[in-house]
């Protein structure tokens, strides 16, 4: 039974892979490459065919999800860059010392294009790939200018193929991103549930939650570009409206998940002997998470949506658990736990509304709500990349990780080519190619890719050798080379180790078509990959390393600043009771993104050698505190947004002002390494006491009602109790968090030099 279940799951995963946009894009690139090869080679124009295929392969990397305009521009820039680079390397090739200087200059300058974000890094990769291929022995007997022209034709041909595929399936990227985001959000809900139940592994679960949060925010950024940018330019179609509503619901689900903010040690103590009641709420998290994952498959398979019965049943059981808890523990002892469970229930009920909104869109029902976002407002949610020369100039400094990486790659590539030529190493360009695909600004990522590259190359070499040993059929080699290339291109972003396996088999089968000595090719391929991987790791460690602690301050500053803005938006909304405006959502988006960037930086820091993790303990505490602060803010904002609340009191404003000032003082500590200053406490203590008294007065009033026999609680009383309890507890906890952050930042500043 277990075996059948596992087999069914594997088949389903494989089916989803074949339906994915990654596989579709890999297939498109392979088809584009095969067209010139299969049409021109039989006609006797193999040189032209190979050059055009190289042009396709060089310029395909820039074809990534995003707006159509950015995609076209990046491919066109890539074409121009690869042409220029190919020409420069070609005319320098006969002159060894000139070629060394060209390698150094091109490697450094092209690598610096990565300062323009992910698209810039892909254009940079294409340019560097053109340089590496230019170092090979003569590719064809055609003149250089014809070879360059064919590269341009290949790039333009691929652009046309890409635009044609976009015209045929214009929304495939959107659907894939929505499905990926639904799947990750489902994992996130499940991971949040584990934080409560799995006390012994809570620290590891926190790290998993941080990582998922980062991945979700990255998907949100891509979806904003795809859904909002297209909408501002071409108006709103019914399809776009539906996808935008799903995206908005996903953002709200993330906020609500963050809002489910619990003092875990307090929860552990309160429900120590009553975990069965709390478990009902955790079960809802698991049911909701798995349902979102099923909806992700629904989008990719274009299938019927799953039943909502499990959602309603799980929520109903959670609601019953509140009454059971009160009956077992009895009032007044059960009051605090019951209020916590009631707040949890309200949060889960709101989550269900968002999930049902997604279900309604996917069921093709008539939309009951429409987005009212104007084009000018939509632009505020799109993170635009600055492509000005100012960004390039600002990064011409050792303070820039990209500058260090560019210099490191240029030096390593130049030295490798020098000694490779001196020692007459066959196919030195393979070593430099390995450097190119493995070396990253971060040491940990470079080390991880090196391990995966070596493992993938070895596995691919064994597979290819076994097939070559069994058959010498060129037809088999041709088919396997094409299939391997498709899988390699499809898996590059998903699973680098398996991508390396298929890239290796592609290269070996391709060379086997040209030379009978295939086993020699395998031998050199494995050896050169190992040398390149080793050089990449050593260079990252020794040559101007950019350890993550050196760059952490800017991520901490951004996180604290964005959390402060988010706090002020919540304060404004609580005071004015206005309909939720764009400024609140924009500040929320910036806070989510800043925390995700901080989490990603911390994750990179964990991959650095232990000796290079400066001030590790305060850093970990600061990252955790910033995440908890964001969760607490989301809890406050979500409650105020979805509940009828009373007027914001002066006491609330006093505490919020203190929190804001503490955050600003923390920023000064990071920016200028100033000493701590004493703060005024009298007004703050008085405000705290009054907030606490507000809750206690409501409790006393409720006690009087119970004494008079009024057991059923009025809805207004329940709402007031919930508000007073949540506002007081979350606000005081937030105050304690930011004060801890301030003192931890002071400790961190004393450990890390300016």
Comma- or semicolon-separated keywords:
Memb_transporter_dom; 754 residues; 4 domains; single chain; 28 helices; YccS_N; cell membrane; Methane Monooxygenase Hydroxylase, Chain G, domain 1; globular
Explain this structure:
It is a single chain. The chain is globular. The protein is mainly α and 754 residues long. Helices cover 80% and strands 0% of the residues. It has helices at residues 2-19, 21-40, 46-59, 68-92, 96-111, 117-134, 144-168, 172-197, 202-234, 238-259, 264-270, 275-301, 309-329, 335-362, 375-381, 389-394, 401-422, 428-438, 443-470, 474-491, 496-514, 518-542, 552-576, 582-607, 616-642, 650-672, 682-707, 715-751. The protein folds into four domains: 1-170, no CATH class; 172-381, Methane Monooxygenase Hydroxylase, Chain G, domain 1 (Up-down Bundle), CATH 1.20.58; 395-546, no CATH class; 573-579 and 605-751, no CATH class. It has 28 helices and no strands.
């Amino acid at each position: 039974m277990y075996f059948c279940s596992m087999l069914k799951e594997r088949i389903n995963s494989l089916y989803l892979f074949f339906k994915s946009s990654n596989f579709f894009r890999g297939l498109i690139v392979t088809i584009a490459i095969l067209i010139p090869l299969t049409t021109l080679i039989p006609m006797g124009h193999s040189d032209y065919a190979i050059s055009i295929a190289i042009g396709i392969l060089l310029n395909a990397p820039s074809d990534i999800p995003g707006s159509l305009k950015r995609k076209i521009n990046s491919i066109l820039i890539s074409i121009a860059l690869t042409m220029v680079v190919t020409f420069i390397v070609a005319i320098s090739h006969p002159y060894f010392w000139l070629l060394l200087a060209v390698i150094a200059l091109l490697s450094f300058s092209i690598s610096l294009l990565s300062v323009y974000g992910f698209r810039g890094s892909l254009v940079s990769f294409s340019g560097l790939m053109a340089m590496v291929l230019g170092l090979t022995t003569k590719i064809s007997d055609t003149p250089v200018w014809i070879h360059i022209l064919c590269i341009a034709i290949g790039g333009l041909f691929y652009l046309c193929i890409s635009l044609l595929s976009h015209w045929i399936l214009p929304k495939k990227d959107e659907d894939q991103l929505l499905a990926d985001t639904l799947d990750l959000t489902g994992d996130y809900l499940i991971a949040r549930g584990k934080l409560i139940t799995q006390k012994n592994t809570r620290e590891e679960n926190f790290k998993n939650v941080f990582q998922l949060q980062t991945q979700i925010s990255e998907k949100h950024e891509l979806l904003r570009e795809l859904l909002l940018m297209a909408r501002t330019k071409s108006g709103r179609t019914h399809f776009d409206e539906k996808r935008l509503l799903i995206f908005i619901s996903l953002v709200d689900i993330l906020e609500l998940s963050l809002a489910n903010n619990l003092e875990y040690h307090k929860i552990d103590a309160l429900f120590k002997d009553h975990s069965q009641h709390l478990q009902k709420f955790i079960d809802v998290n698991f049911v909701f998470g798995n349902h979102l994952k099923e909806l992700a498959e629904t989008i990719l398979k274009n299938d019927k949506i799953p039943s909502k019965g499990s959602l309603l049943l799980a929520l109903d059981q959670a609601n019953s658990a509140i009454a059971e808890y009160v009956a077992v523990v009895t009032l007044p002892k059960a009051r605090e736990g019951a209020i916590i469970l009631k707040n949890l229930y309200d949060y889960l009920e709101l989550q269900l509304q968002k999930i049902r909104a997604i279900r309604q869109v996917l069921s093709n029902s008539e939309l009951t709500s429409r987005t009212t976002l104007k084009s000018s407002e939509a632009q505020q949610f799109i993170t635009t990349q600055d492509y000005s020369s100012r960004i390039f100039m600002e990064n011409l400094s050792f303070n820039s990780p990209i500058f260090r990486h560019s210099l490191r790659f240029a030096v390593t590539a130049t030295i490798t080519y020098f000694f490779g030529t001196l020692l007459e190493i066959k196919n030195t360009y393979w070593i430099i190619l390995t450097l190119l695909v493995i070396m990253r600004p971060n040491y940990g990522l470079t080390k991880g890719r090196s391990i995966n590259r070596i493992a993938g190359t070895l596995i691919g070499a064994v597979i290819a050798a076994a097939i070559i040993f069994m058959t010498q059929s060129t037809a088999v080699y041709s088919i396997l080379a094409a299939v391997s290339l498709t899988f390699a291109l499809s898996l590059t972003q998903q699973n680098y180790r398996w991508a390396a396996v298929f890239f290796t088999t592609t290269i070996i089968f391709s060379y086997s078509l040209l030379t009978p000595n295939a086993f020699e090719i395998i031998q050199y391929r494995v050896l050169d990959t190992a040398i390149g991987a080793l050089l990449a790791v050593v260079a990252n460690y020794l040559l101007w390393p950019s350890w993550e602690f050196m760059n952490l301050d800017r991520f901490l500053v951004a996180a604290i600043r964005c959390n402060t803005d988010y706090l002020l938006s919540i304060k404004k909304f609580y005071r004015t009771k206005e309909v939720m405006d764009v400024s609140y959502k924009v500040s929320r988006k910036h806070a989510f993104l800043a925390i995700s960037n901080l989490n990603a930086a911390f994750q990179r820091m964990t991959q650095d050698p232990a000796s290079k993790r400066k001030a590790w303990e305060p850093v970990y505490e600061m990252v955790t505190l910033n995440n908890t602060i964001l969760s607490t803010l989301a809890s406050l904002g979500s409650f105020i947004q979805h509940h009828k609340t009373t007027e914001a009191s002066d006491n609330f404003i006093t505490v919020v002002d203190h929190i804001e000032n503490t955050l600003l003082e923390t920023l000064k500590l990071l920016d200028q390494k100033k000493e701590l200053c004493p703060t005024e406490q009298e007004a703050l203590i008085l405000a705290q006491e009054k907030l606490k008294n507000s809750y206690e007065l409501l409790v006393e009033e409720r006690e009087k009602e119970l004494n008079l026999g009024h057991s059923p609680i009025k809805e207004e009383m329940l709402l007031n109790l919930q508000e007073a309890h949540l506002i007081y507890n979350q606000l005081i906890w937030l105050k304690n968090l930011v004060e801890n952050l301030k003192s931890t930042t002071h400790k961190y500043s004393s450990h890390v030099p300016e």
